[in-house]
Amino acid sequence: MIYYGSLGKSYLLIKNYVLRMRKYILNLFLGLLLLGIVANKCEAVIKIVSPTLTVTPMPTTQVVPTSAAIKENITESKQTVGELETFVLNNKVEKWNGLNSMRLVVEKAVERGVAANTIVLLLLLPLIATLISVMHYVLGLSGYGIFMPTMMAVAFLATGAVGGLVLFAVILGVTLISNLVLRKLRLHFWPARAISLILIGWATFGLMVLSSYLNFFDLKNISIFPILFMILLTEEFVRTQLAKSRSEAKKLMAGTLILAVVGAEMMQIREVQKWVLLYPEISLVLGVVVNLAVGSYTGIRWSEIRRFGKAIRKSPKAKVKNSK
Questions:
Q1: pTM for this prediction
Q2: What letters, b where the CB count within 10 A reaches 16 and e where it falls short, cover 153-187?
């Protein structure tokens, strides 16, 4: 009798949930049915309107892309010899003197087939982290730690600053809207996150298709990793909203995006990429020295000068000068 009562209670809960979800399922089914009908009609119209073309073989000319026309994406490792590989092989070490050991290792790695793009990213990531550290402790620009802005800088390097910001805005908007809708259904956390990921995936796919028709930004060839980095950032934003406040979440989000855009623009400079390949020892020493200096910095941050300006002590010479 007790088993029957608990079973009946579970049946009523499932029945209420199905009745509540029936409207959403019906709307989804009708939308998919309408989309299929429209697609079939469009296909039939195209078959009727499009004339039959007779293809005749004609001589074609091979167009060789130049470096000025096509921008190389260093986040993608290629099997062919690119501009950076050619640069390394054309600037070989003439004589080993002990101080150019890292450059010799880079040269040998490129000769053995290691992608120069990957080497550049590995050498640039510590410099980007150093730049983010300086901007945080000296300028006072805060973000979600040091790894999240660095990862977002790599993501923006792959997508471009404009395309990356548009993609992130779409992912953030879909996440916030899905959270508002799914909260009313009172689902468990993981199923709700799974549904949110489904919506984000389809929204990203739609944006990639849309970018193939537009010349404003290009997202049709991006990999999954920039998308995952942006999803992680949106999750941090939602978590900060729940744990702290919305204003704090917006502040950290804006700081992370600014740091990421600055880092991506720095990594995109071709002269910087060639410099770290020619002088990897200097880039290593520079990163260590700057971080040691920033790590012992005890001064006020530039963004807080206006806030604590009245509390800053003036030097005796300045006091005498103001009294005169």
A1: 0.67
A2: bbbbbbbbbebbbbbbebbbebbeebeeebeeeee
